[in-house]
Amino acid sequence: MQVMMNIVLLLQMAAAVAMIGLVLVQQGKGADMGASFGGGASGSLFGATGSANFLSRSTAIAATVFFLCTLALAYFGNLRPQDSGSSILDRASAPVAASAPASAAPAAAQIPGLVAPAASVPASR
Fold first, then answer.
1. Is 96 helix (H, G, I), strand (E, B) or coil?
2. Does residue 28 contact residue 96 with C-beta atoms inside 8 Å?
3. Where would I find the H helices in 2-113?
4. Which 3 state secondary structure label does DSSP give 32?
5. Are 52 and 26 spatial neighbours (Cβ–Cβ below 8 Å)?
6. C-alpha span between 98 and 7 (Å, rounded)
7. Which residues, 6 or more positions from 55, have their beta carbon under 8 angstroms from its beta carbon?
8. Which 3 state secondary structure label does DSSP give 90?
9. Which residues, in sequence order, are CB contacts of 48 under 8 Å at separation 6+?
10. 9-61: per-residue pLDDT in tens?
């Protein structure tokens, strides 16, 4: 199970880095206006509109892989062992209660600097 989570986490990090790189490489919508007046980007590798389609599709695929990995990590992270019926708070507090010293002193006397309250005496009239 731990190996599966590590593989999904590695895939999620690769998708995140790919998505960041793809978004940074893409041009904005206003960049086409400069290219129409001879901006010099017309001789690109993918053609005039091919780069926009390729980069936007690649970004969408990377985003889909990222979100699927996020859902898988959330699912694997919330799996609980089937044999224990107690909550995590019960399991965390059980060793603390067993290791506490048993003493006859009241709880207020164990706190330093705290004065124990006086016994209540009925007021006489």
1. helix
2. no
3. 2-25, 31-36, 50-77, 88-99, 107-110
4. helix
5. yes
6. 39
7. 22, 25, 26
8. helix
9. 42
10. 999 999 999 999 999 998 877 665 655 565 555 455 555 556 668 889 999 99
